[in-house]
Amino acid sequence: MQLTSLADLLELQEIDLQIDRLLDQRQSLPELDAYKSAHEEAKRKDKEREMLASELRKLELDLDKAEGELEILENKLEEHETRLFGGGMSGRETEHMRLEVQSLKGQRGAMEERVLGMLEEIDPARAAVQAIEAEIGEINARKAELESSIKDQWKSIDAELARKEERKKAALEPIDAELLELYEKLRGIKEGVAVASYDHGVCGGCHMALSPAEQEEAFAADLPRCVHCRRILVA
Ligand SMILES: [Zn+2]
Predict the structure, then answer these.
(1) How far apart are CA 60 and CA 70, in angstroms?
(2) Could you tell me how far CA 219 lies from the centroid of its own chain?
(3) Residue 203, helix vs strand vs coil
(4) Which of 51, 131, 132 is nearest to 59 (CA)?
(5) Nearest CA to 235 among 62, 227, 225?
(6) N or C terminus of the chain: which is more exposed, having fewer CB within 10 Å?
(7) Which residues contact residue 138 at a Cβ distance below 8 angstroms, ignoring those fewer than 6 apart?
(8) Distance 174 CA to ligand 1 centre (A)
(9) pTM of the model
(10) Ligand 1 centre and the CA of 27: distance in Å?
(11) DSSP symbol at 201
(12) For residue 171, how far is its CA from the centre of ligand 1 (angstroms)?
């Protein structure tokens, strides 16, 4: 094995590790977590908003109905009073009409109270819907900000990645196909580090020392490999 080829391999390893770091950085931006939790929060708030809005709709329908009933009562009362004050009825009829008017007034009073009670309920229900809509608006604005920050960072990481990939292409050229195959296999099982520098009797991959005998054995082979971790050693 040519030493130049091994040095090339070490350079390839360096570029690959830089690419690995960029890919890792790309998928572990803190903004991604923040975006995800903002998205979940928006979903939760939207469900809550739907519930509050449907409660409000029900209150509004009930109020409409009660106001309609109140109007009917008022019309009926007016009609009866007109007849009562118009006179021309017998004493019994007049007494009957008087009692009827009294009863209608009672019903109107009760209905007015109901309507007032409903109006008192509707105001906070409307306020609750508005408040949650404002919250959702804020969350969505935060999401949009995070999204644009993520996209900006990805753009610069991707540009950097493209530069590294170009360098990698050049670095791959001088490397023997069989060696490259071993390199890729080792990278897959050795946390991305297939090649280690050998310095002062220590493997740069597993950081374990090789005894003089182990060193001799390792470097006697065509392709020196660490006796401990089996990574390719470049002295
Ligand atoms: Zn090692």
Answers:
(1) 15
(2) 53
(3) strand
(4) 51
(5) 225
(6) C
(7) none
(8) 25
(9) 0.73
(10) 29
(11) T
(12) 24
